[in-house]
Amino acid sequence: MTGVCADCGCLVERGVRVSTCDDQGCCCSALATRDVGRMAAQITAAFEARDIVSFGALLADDARWGDDDTPTKCRSRRDVVVTFERLLAEGVGGDVVETKIGPAGVLCRLRIRWPDPADPLRRDEVLHLYRVRDGQIVEIEPYDDRSAAEAALASV
Ligand SMILES: [Zn+2]
Ligand SMILES: [Zn+2]
Hints:
Blueprint (H helix, E strand, L loop, with lengths): L1 E3 L6 E3 L2 E4 L12 E2 L2 H13 L3 H6 L1 E7 L11 H13 L3 E10 L2 E9 L11 E9 L2 E8 L2 H9 L2
Parallel strand pairs: 3-4, 5-9
Antiparallel strand pairs: 1-2, 2-3, 6-7, 7-8, 8-9
Bound molecules: zinc ion (2 copies).
One zinc ion binds next to loops.
């Protein structure tokens, strides 16, 4: 069942918003949303403002980041938020310089600012695929290679 909310104008499909209204008093904001275009804007804004709380609100409870054999792997929203907090505290900053949306979610090109320019782990740019399911980021997938990242974005 798909219908437009009579009160605010959101397009709702089986309890999930597929298109969001611009109504300040939106009555459907608590619903899950599949509006990945809006999520891309929210991710960009959160990075710009260094707003970890807003970023965390986009994550699923069991959001994942990093392979199983990575010591710093994240397996929950809290793990991801703590990791971002640690990076910010260390002076590492990131700006979203490009976003692309696709069936898998949002692909972000991040420009990283390092406190120590001699850091051996230093890379100036990284690609993050934010995999979206039911309106939430369920996994952060880093890519070095643009064509691999775009292939992942195009498939679910
Ligand atoms: Zn609405
Ligand atoms: Zn509504």
